[in-house]
TrEMBL record:
Organism from which the protein derives: Sporotomaculum syntrophicum
EC number(s) reported in the record: 2.6.1.82
Any one GO molecular-function label of the UniProt entry: pyridoxal phosphate binding
Sorted UniProt keywords: Aminotransferase, Pyridoxal phosphate, Transferase
Keyword Transferase attributed: yes
Presence of the UniProt keyword Secreted in the record: no
Gene3D superfamilies: Aspartate Aminotransferase, domain 1, NAD(P)-binding Rossmann-like Domain, Type I PLP-dependent aspartate aminotransferase-like (Major domain)
EC main group: transferase
Coiled-coil ranges (or none): none
Name by which UniProt lists this protein: Putrescine aminotransferase
Pfam family, one: Aminotran_3
Cofactor(s) the protein requires to work: pyridoxal 5'-phosphate
Length: 877
């Protein structure tokens, strides 16, 4: 770990490392930085404008050497300060006419603090008015003037008296001043918002804003800490409108890229005796800083400000070239802003243009520009950065000495990255971050399969509204969402998953509309949590459930009235119980999942003419909600039941398995009391011959029955999968494990395996090693009307999981109440969803195996292998 990350700022260090911006620069020379490996980078950040002449400018070092040689004292407060007085005189001579005094500081934020104090002292008023999305530094007072609550809350409540209004909105300013006449000491403005995204106000805005302030006795303060001293193609940005403020704030460039110094220039009216007597600083106005400031001014005004005029000309040419780039890539670049060498390029990939692209999600969540900066740095050798508040904007803010030839290098690099973005080439943009080597990755865009705007809510009260919370089950589901990731190695996908897990928030992955057989309509959205199943199990329960709450809040904000919990979102929330009552009514979808799983088993058995009443069924994960209920329903059909628990906790599993067995017995006894008749020699028929407890008695009263069934071999309780599987002609998996639990060598001849677990618990090698075994995916349902679900679930259009279908049914019925939560699934609910499926037209999909439809050729292949296996067994006998 680098010392910076270990001892200075571990959070920033981690972020820089995640996006590969963690270069160690060992040398700076002119406009270039050199890292520890000797690679050179063109720097177009220039320390956010604090490097007017690049790194280590010789003339600034010469000024420092002259101070050292002369032995002029540095810190001599209180005294008449020679260097400070000289620099103040030069600043006032160059500044707009009307400014008279200079208060020196040590930084930009400190300059803002001095201006706030000066304004309050001069007016006797407490209020400071600023604009939304502005930036004035990171001291508490300066943060309070940003107009962004995000920056205020971490440090407690903002300083009293601060308020923000929209930038570039004269009507809002006039209304605020009239409504609060006599409250405000000053209006604090940037002539161009820097960290807000390089936002240039309308012509005349600054002049009219100053006039409104004067009418209400409010001081007009221009923060030129970033725009001042040549940055915009003028010595001061306010010269563009021939404007003199009451205070003009400077810093950054005044230190020549070597030494921190700031200055607050003010009119005589703004500068009071009270402020002069109370404000002081040990280090401000020091000799070294002021001598450097004098040299900076000498360089800037040399040859009739030829450097600044060159900034104006090159900045205009650069902006024109960027606007041409915007015309070539309108889906990627949305605007070009700024003046001189203070330009912003706004990047934004909309979901409408890129519905199945990881990049559009990153863009929507304002996480794309750091990755663009990473690509430009690591691939093109260009150093840029996003603006702080305008998170979609890449700033171009180089040293004032940058040449047009270097600007052309930047244009070429931006052309390349825009082309990558326009193709939706996710692996190429992330190549340096996820370790995909040095060769460019070619991606040819394909026609989008799932148009983002295909389905929209109607807004009608009769329309049902739902959300379904999903997540990538494993790494291999990332290419299903973003086809450009197809063929990417698993280690690179793992890095991509880690990046998403750390940087992304829940987002809308797909949208759909369901029109049922009964004529009802429901609109729904699939909200994705950026965590794989393995990550969700490894995360702290409280942390992952907080993430789930955010997903549910997003669903609620977008109009959902009920939410389904998919895959491991149900597991980590204890079947939804940890989220119950917090945001939305919930369902796990487990009730209909069980119904669909049993129907799939019956359908497969009929195809092979298997009599289930003469077969044994093994249920792996029988202690869970789905597994136990599957066992209960299958007990109606099978000859023998094998309940398989977790080998890691054999004692607890065995106890719970016996309880599951007792529930099977109780269910069958109750069914018999209603007239149900089991098949001869089946599990149920054998049970009814026994001496049973009265119906309605506690489950523990049925444990002796379970023990007797175990002795008979009709019921097997085990945590040994290897022992269980050879005895079962039907196998169901319903676990929360991410492991492949079903070994092909353990399976009985001609077994049917129904895999309901997601991720799958069945090894894909079963198909090759055991061609006589049929593996079917449980719980896949055809949605009425076969709509797209907005992204590739790995199914044909209109197919989804049964848990999704349950959520859709509830929305169609406007049944906005919790259901199917926790570990106890009601058989009544299962019958309810079986009826709703018929009513609305949800049907069991064509059976599938390893997420592919089972064709007639595949059925025949398995049937032939089964016959051959039986023949060989008969010969052996």
């Amino acid at each position: 770990m680098h010392n910076f990350s270990r001892y200075v700022n571990p959070h920033l260090g981690d972020l820089l490392e995640q996006v590969h911006l963690d270069k160690t620069y060992i040398r700076g020379e002119g406009h270039y930085l050199f890292d520890s490996e000797g690679k050179r980078y063109l720097d177009f950040i220039a320390a956010y404008g604090a490097l007017p002449f690049g790194y280590n400018p010789p003339e600034i070092w010469q000024a420092i050497d002259e101070v050292r040689t002369s032995a002029e004292p540095s810190f001599i407060q209180p005294s008449v300060l020679e260097a400070a007085g000289e620099l103040a005189r030069r600043l006032i001579e160059l500044a707009p006419e009307g400014l008279q005094y200079v208060t020196f500081t040590n930084s930009g934020a400190e300059t803002v603090e001095a201006a706030i104090k000066m304004a309050r002292s001069a007016t006797g008023r407490p209020g400071i008015l600023s604009t939304t999305n502005s930036f004035h530094g990171k001291t508490l007072g300066a943060l309070s003037a940003t107009g962004r609550e995000y920056y205020q809350l971490p440090f407690g409540a903002p300083v009293e008296g601060f308020k923000s209004i929209p930038y570039n909105d004269l009507a809002a300013l006039e209304q605020e001043l009239e409504n609060n006449n006599g409250r405000y000491a000053a209006l604090l403005l940037e002539p161009i918002q820097g960290e807000g995204g390089i936002v240039v106000p309308s012509s005349g805005y600054l002049v009219q804003a100053r006039e409104l302030c004067r009418q209400h006795g409010v001081l007009f303060v221009l923060d030129e800490i970033q725009t001042g001293l040549g940055r915009t193609g003028r010595l001061f940005a306010c010269e563009e409108e021939n404007l003199c403020p009451d205070m003009l704030l400077l810093a950054k460039a005044l230190g020549g890229g070597i030494f921190p110094i700031g200055a607050c220039l003010s009119t005589a009216e703004a500068y009071s005796k009270d402020f002069a007597e109370r404000h002081s600083s040990t280090f401000a106005a020091n000799t070294l800083g002021c001598r450097i400031g004098l040299k900076v001014l000498d360089i800037l005004v040399r040859n009739d400000q030829s450097m600044i005029r060159r900034v104006q000309d090159n900045g205009r040419r650069l902006r024109e070239a960027l606007e041409m780039l915007l015309q070539r890539y309108p889906r990627v670049i949305k605007s070009i802003r700024g003046r001189g060498y203070m330009l912003g390029v706004e990047f934004d990939l909309s979901r409408a243009d890129f519905p199945s692209s990881y990049l559009s999600v990153l863009s929507y969540q304002d996480n794309l520009t750091p990755l663009i900066a990473s690509y430009l740095l690591n691939v093109e050798g260009l150093r840029v950065a996003p603006t702080l508040n305008g998170n979609k904007v890449i700033r171009l803010e180089p040293s004032l000495t940058v040449t047009w030839e270097e600007c052309q290098v930047v244009l070429q690099a931006l052309e390349k990255v825009s082309n990558v973005l326009d193709k939706g080439n996710t692996p190429e943009l992330l190549r340096p971050i996820i370790g995909l080597g040095n060769q460019p990755i070619i991606h040819k865009p394909r026609e989008e399969m799932y148009p983002w705007d295909r389905y929209q809510p109607t807004g009608h009260s009769e329309e049902g509204r739902f959300a379904f919370i999903i997540h990538p089950l494993d790494l291999y589901q990332y290419p299903l969402f973003d086809p450009s990731l197809k063929g990417i190695a698993s280690d690179a996908l793992q890095k991509l998953a880690e990046l998403g897990s750390q940087q992304m928030k829940p987002f809308v992955m797909g949208r759909t509309a369901v029109v049922s057989r009964a004529g009802r309509r429901a609109y729904g959205e699939f909200i994705c949590l950026p965590h794989t199943a393995k990550e969700m199990l490894e995360l702290n329960t409280e942390v992952i459930n907080q993430e789930l709450e955010k997903a549910l809040e997003l669903a609620q904000q977008r109009g959902a009235c009920i939410a389904g919990l998919g895959a491991y979102t149900s597991v980590v929330s204890r079947g939804g119980l940890l989220l119950q009552g917090k945001v939305l009514p919930l369902t796990t979808g487990n009730s209909y999942t069980v119904v669909a799983g049993v129907e799939a088993i019956k359908l497969a058995a009929r195809r092979f003419k298997m009599d289930l009443s003469q077969c044994s069924a093994a249920i792996i994960g029988a202690t869970g909600a789905i597994g136990r209920t599957l066992a209960i329903l299958l007990s109606e059909e099978m000859q023998n039941i094998i309940l398989v628990g977790n080998a890691r906790h054999p004692q607890a599993s065995t106890r719970r398995l016996r309880q599951a067995g007792a529930y099977c017995c109780m269910h069958l006894a109750e069914q018999a009391s209603r007239g149900w008749q089991p098949a001869p020699d089946s599990f149920g028929a054998n049970l009814l011959l026994m001496d049973l407890p009265p119906l309605g008695t506690p489950v523990d009263n049925w444990l002796p029955v379970v023990a007797e069934l175990e002795q008979q071999g009709r019921l097997v309780i085990t945590t040994d999968i290897a022992q269980a599987l050879p005895r079962a002609q039907v196998v169901l998996t319903a676990t929360s494990s991410v492991d492949e639990l079903v070994n092909p060598r353990w399976l009985a001849n001609g077994a049917i395996v129904c895999d309901i677990s997601k991720p799958s618990n069945v090894s894909p090698t079963v198909r090759q090693i055991r061609p006589d075994v049929l593996v079917i995916d449980g719980g896949v349902v055809a949605v009425p009307g076969r709509p797209t679900l907005g992204w590739n679930f790995g199914f044909e259009q209109g197919l989804g999981y049964a848990c999704m279908a349950e959520t859709m049914m509830l929305a169609l019925e406007h049944h906005y109440q919790d259901i199917s939560l926790g570990s106890d699934l009601s058989l009544d609910n299962m019958m309810y969803f079986r009826e709703l499926a018929v009513k609305h037209g949800f049907e069991l999909a064509q059976l599938r195996s390893f997420e592919q439809p089972l064709s007639e050729q595949e059925w025949e292949r398995v049937a032939k292998a089964r016959r051959q296996k039986d023949h060989l067994i008969n010969i052996a006998r």
